[in-house]
Amino acid sequence: MTHPPPIVARMHSHVERWTACADDRALFLRCYSMMTGNVFATAEGDGFGDRDWVVRLLHRFADYYFDGLDAFERAPESAPAVWRQAHRLAADPDAAPIQKLLLGVNAHINYDLVLTLVDLLEPEWGALSPEARGGRYEDHCRINDVIGRTIDAVQDEVVEPAMPFMAYVDRWLGPLDEALVSGVITRWREGVWRHAVAVLDAPTTASRDQLVRRVEAEALRTGGLVCPRARHL
Known about the structure:
The chain is built from 9 helices and no strands. The chain is mainly α and about 230 residues long.
């Protein structure tokens, strides 16, 4: 790509501003911008079965991030609970940078991505054949491959500058640490797909809303496992 897509440029703008004022929300957003840029680059080639669907997903996914951010900056209690948790931890000087990064990843994947998939799939879900539904799932899984290929760069460019000792961990473990992180994210994203399908197949609005609340509750619990301090934010 000669120029980054507008949503990636918007991410870069926030990262630059936050980095300049030592706002650790830049940790997650820089990681997210790298992942998003690489998915866009893959979509420009033949990396996905339905390029247009993946591009729509990227834009809707980013909408959820920026809508949550805008809500938090306008009135924190109006933001989703998982994002209140992530943004507040980012301001905690006693939390480790890797925890701040992972709280953002958790909120965006384990909560936002469920809602994003529901938004994109709902208009077509009833009309999709089993084969077409499988194609959507395959494109969802192909993004895992892009994430896996990006993790090493995230470690080098985001994590190690914030936590220099991680360079020693990287050299000691070799590719094992990247494989472990990639495996965790892949498992999260597999659960996300199951949650989205459950919401789509919910028989009533009430049961659907209950499932969404359960998704957020699970994401909050995951955040508390990543960083016990986050349970009190």
